[in-house]
# Entry
Amino acid sequence: MTQSFDMPLPSESAPAEATGGEASVTTGTESVHTAKTLAESKPPTDEEVLRVENLSVDFPTDDGVVKAVRDVSYSLREREVLSIVGESGSGKSVSSMAVMGLLPRSARISGRVLYRGQDLLAMREKDRRSLRGRKISMIFQDPMTALNPVHTVGDQLAEAVLAHSLVPPRQARERAREMLDLVGIPQAAQRLRNYPHEFSGGMRQRVMIAMAIINNPDVIIADEPTTALDVTVQAQILEKLLEVKDAVNAAILLITHDLGVVAGLAHRVLVMYAGTPVEVGETDDVFYRTRMPYTAGLLGSIPSMTSSHGERLRPIQGTPPSLINLPSGCPFAPRCPLADATCRSSEPPLAPAYNPGEGGRRSEGQEDTDRYTEHLTACHHWERLASVEDPTTFFRNGGQNP
Amino acid sequence: MTTTRHESEERHEAAPALLEVDDLEVRFPVYGSGLLRRVVGHVHAVSGVSLRLAERETLGVVGESGCGKSTTGRAILQLVKPTAGSVRYRGEELTSMSSAGLQRVRREAGIVFQDPYASLNPKLPVNDIIAEPLKVHRRWRDGGPERVAELLRLVGLSPEHGNRYPHEFSGGQRQRVGIARALALEPRLLVLDEPVSALDVSVQAGVVNLLEDLQERLGLSYVFIAHDLSVVRHISDRVAVMYLGRVVETGTREQVYESPSHPYTQALLSAAPWPDPRQERVRERIVLTGDVPSPVNPPSGCRFRTRCWKAQEVCAEQTPELTDRGNGHPVACHFPD
# Structure
């Protein structure tokens, strides 16, 4: 099976890291290692690998039913990075765990999760297990808890190979070494014998990435892959993610709360609030043509790197609603400066954020490609956002109605 | 209320900086595993840090985990005993001060911790949490309950909620409780140790705005410790960048952010992701290789040299001092930009 992997030779990417980088070479000339950017990575193809349709997840509890995820739909193409953004409790992690089939039995899941046309939710557990970790893999936030502390990294990586294919253990181990090399761990052959605690945080996350790509997956779900890391290490890991995406032609589902990470890494964005998508679109549309007040509120809450001194942040008032007692109407209405009676009585559907006939690039009969370019919002008043230059201004003065 | 105190009190206009830290050093012993538990080494958490803070100023201290920024904050308030160096608060040396003296100083200098879940006693209602410093410093008798209510209002919480326990509040509200407690004794100086790092961005912005309002209204000075570069840029007047126990660069926020001179500062700023997709897709980003070395055995000379693209032999031999090149923007580098 190893023959089928078409990856760059490890030697191409490894030595720079192995010596501590060209950076430490004491020559007179300055050489800075600059990161690969999304613009330089390979563009997505038109081949759909994953489609999620109307996914909902409920957790029955003693206090009532927690509606953790409501009606999430998206599709993902080869080599595409789709980012799911939201704050704690928005359902972004639960929805991805549902895709992986990692939720506890108590979870009530509905909808469809189609991997190349096969519904993962309707599949037998045995078939699903053969896809999980092979065709769809996952990178967890905290590598210290995701890796087994009592087994060496080499054994754990080899196990990931052996679980899915009948290859000699030696070959699996060789494959593990290649992967460590690929993710930039120096002296990979020796490091295979180390235990997770012997690695630093950034190196552990590299091991997680190596494990995620070891079976050449089509979809990598990265759940807050850099949240636990320092910013300079985060930059290394994000660059690696882009590199491995191109190396194995995988699609990445990037789950994060950090809009900065999204800006640099995602082709498309899905913003979640209170368990449901509230804005979906290409990254530029969502950032520069924001059509949902919640997204605008998030953007206004981040101090910009160009603002002048004394400029105020524009936070969102209040806190997210309880997922047991969702408010009627739009879940964001209680915190929204634009909310009116309509918002409080009826929940807006996720619909195109442009009027019929508007938006030149959309023509009939293009439904399939539209899926990847359309800009959707769940807001009754998206037109009011469209009418102003900077929608974050709605959150000025504590979000009092302007 | 508190504002009147500052007005009524006579203040020396030409007084020295509110806080002066010189060559602060904190080392923690590392014990061996043998029977005698001998000291086998030291963690050099803070090695020769000097800082200045003027009244009503915010000094941002940035750096990555393990750079010693939190230890510096605690050592300033003598919550961790410095191994060497001096900390002067309004001209008074704190490192050699008696505990009675320190108790007096701590009325004026408080701290807000990072984790609003761990720093509030879960068994006490919020009223009691905020009342505790008042009781310890014998201020409870004259109008204690009213003061607690006033503090809750000051941080944007309703006094009716004072009987609730910490678990009944959200993260942002808890951090407001922590701030109210720190303000109870009408301090002049607050050490804010990652005060918003544990919060969601939309909540974080509210707490940042609150801190700015309080500074304005109460004339506070802040030492704002954080790893989030954009928050530090937003709130600080001056910024100190730390790496492995040392300050590598310090200056006004414009100097540090617009013209970073130390390679580490440049790398740090360039690695920080900005929420601006057009720029991010094409921006050249310096990626440092490797990890931060261990503070038990820091590199000789410049501590950043193992990851620096400018490193030469001199960097391993001589420790670059934090030197001002005549523009009030000191940098500790042999080859600054």
Notes: The two ends of chain A are 62 Å apart (CA to CA). The longest strand of chain A covers residues 48-61.
